[in-house]
Design a protein that fits this description.
With 426 residues, the chain is α/β, with parallel strands linked by helices. The protein has helices at residues 12-22, 31-43, 62-70, 80-88, 111-118, 127-135, 174-183, 201-218, 249-265, 277-280, 319-323, 418-422, and strands at 26-30, 50-55, 74-77, 100-103, 121-124, 141-147, 169-170, 187-192, 227-229, 270-273, 284-295, 306-310, 329-330, 339-345, 366-369, 376-379, 401-405, 408-413. The strands form 2 sheets. Strands 1, 11, 12, 13, 14, 15, 16, 17 and 18 form a 9-stranded mixed β-sheet that branches. An 8-stranded parallel beta barrel has the order 2-3-4-5-6-8-9-10, surrounded by 5 helices.
Length: 426
């Protein structure tokens, strides 16, 4: 599929009016783009027994969760509070069916209490988590997350399978966890793995088939299985806005995997998929303003650089500073200007507060229309892990989120204030 063109991100008059009303920086969601991505995923699950989930950590705002629920997408949560946020958005508790699954490597804060109280399906990733559930008196069904030995993210920090990944139980240890669960009075009703969203589509396609085969090999030892999750994985192309991602090819793959695994089990099984970023990545952009343009000169430490200083920083969009992620950058209304290599940098007192860098943490100037003070600048594809990972570091309040639909704009979350920050202090 091709993602629809952003409605608001190229409309400089609209963005200027919103900047006047809400200040910069701000996030703006495009309802059409988000729904197109949701529908693309759901269309791959229209075969009997195939179910889509959304890894809500990518974007846990209630408005987004309600869009998922309206499309019939279930939820994967990774904390007790995420479970409660999903419940707040209208998702049912319990595990019949398991609309909410809890997936984590550690029960921290209120997670164990919430799992017990809400009755959601815990997806355990270690023998110790089985022991934690046992000590808490839990005797319900569980899901087992396995590490299949392969799968990767777009950078090493996002690896979800293989020897360097902390997630899940190594697949050869699955039987030992099964025995521990049975001894504790629990039944394993789902098997889960995640092979990452880093591969290109063809590699993803091969890995999904490989993962289904790996599950088929261990499935006979699990007599209570109701579902198998192939995890996430659908990639999003951050560099090419016109990339055609052939998600429709996954429909037949998922249908075939569901039928094959059901045959191995001797009964109908539910096959789940669990993308996160693919649903939401192109749905939101971060709008910022150029506050200054300045230059350094070449010396023995390296070449000179032109810096476009903007009022957004890694408090708003952490991914470039965290692991060198690429986000397209545009200056609406400046297309006629001559392009020049520019480093886009934010307001924080951190040398790493730069949006144009590579995964080795080196500055990587971007060819952009020559920026001028006062320009509106747009950082694209921030819907996944954008607002979700933002912070109030430097006591800068989180930027607001806006919603664009049918030419109208509404407020989703307001700008965080100092009063909001101080409210937590004793």
């Amino acid at each position: 599929m091709k993602t629809p063109a952003h409605g608001p991100s190229s409309d400089v008059a609209l963005l200027e009016s919103l900047a006047d009303k809400y200040g910069t920086p701000f996030w703006i969601w495009d309802a059409d783009v988000l729904r197109a991505r949701i529908n693309a995923v759901v269309s791959t699950t229209d075969s009997p027994g195939v179910q889509a989930r959304f890894a809500m950590k990518a974007s846990p705002t209630t408005k987004i969760l309600q869009e998922m629920k309206a499309a019939g997408v279930w939820i994967d949560s990774v904390s007790g509070n995420e479970v409660l946020r999903a419940r707040h958005a209208g998702y049912a508790g319990g595990n019949q069916p398991p609309e909410i699954c809890f997936t984590a490597d550690v029960f921290r804060d209120n997670a164990l209490d919430v799992v017990l109280k809400e009755g959601v399906l815990p997806n355990v990733g270690s023998p110790g988590m089985v022991d934690d559930l046992k000590k808490a008196g839990y005797t319900g069904p569980i899901s087992l997350r396995v590490n299949p030995g392969f799968g990767h993210g777009h950078v090493n920090e996002c690896d979800t399978g293989g020897p360097s990944s902390k997630h899940g139980v190594w697949i050869t240890e699955a039987k030992a966890v099964l025995e521990a669960a049975e001894a504790a009075g629990m039944t394993i009703t789902m098997l889960h793995a995640h092979i990452g969203s880093g591969p290109q589509f063809e590699e993803l396609y091969d890995n999904l088939n490989r993962l289904a085969d790996e599950f088929a090999a261990i499935l006979p030892m699990f007599q209570d299985i109701e579902g198998v999750s192939l995890g996430g994985g659908i990639p999003h192309d951050y560099r090419d806005a016109d990339a055609d991602i052939p998600v429709e090819r996954l429909r037949d793959l998922f249908a075939a995997a569901q039928q094959m695994l059901s045959k191995v089990a001797g009964r109908e099984l539910r096959l789940e998929i669990e993308p996160g970023r693919f649903y939401v990545a192109p749905g939101a952009v971060l709008v910022t303003r150029v506050t200054d343009v300045k230059q350094t000169e070449t010396n023995e430490k390296g070449p000179g650089v032109t810096f476009a200083m903007v009022d957004a920083g890694f408090v708003d969009l952490a991914r470039p500073a965290m692991y060198g992620s690429y986000h397209r950058i545009t200056l609406p209304g400046a297309d006629a200007r001559e392009e020049a290599p520019v480093v886009v940098a934010g307001p924080l007192c951190e040398s790493g507060d730069v949006f144009t860098r590579d995964d080795s943490e080196m500055l990587q100037p971007r060819d952009l229309p020559s920026p001028q003070t006062g320009d509106i600048m747009v950082l694209h594809d921030g819907g996944a892990y954008g607002y979700a990972m933002s912070s109030n570091y430097n006591s800068l309040g989180r930027a607001p989120q806006l919603w664009f639909e049918n030419g109208e704009v509404s407020l989703v979350t307001r700008r965080e204030t100092l009063e909001d920050i101080l409210r937590l202090e004793e």
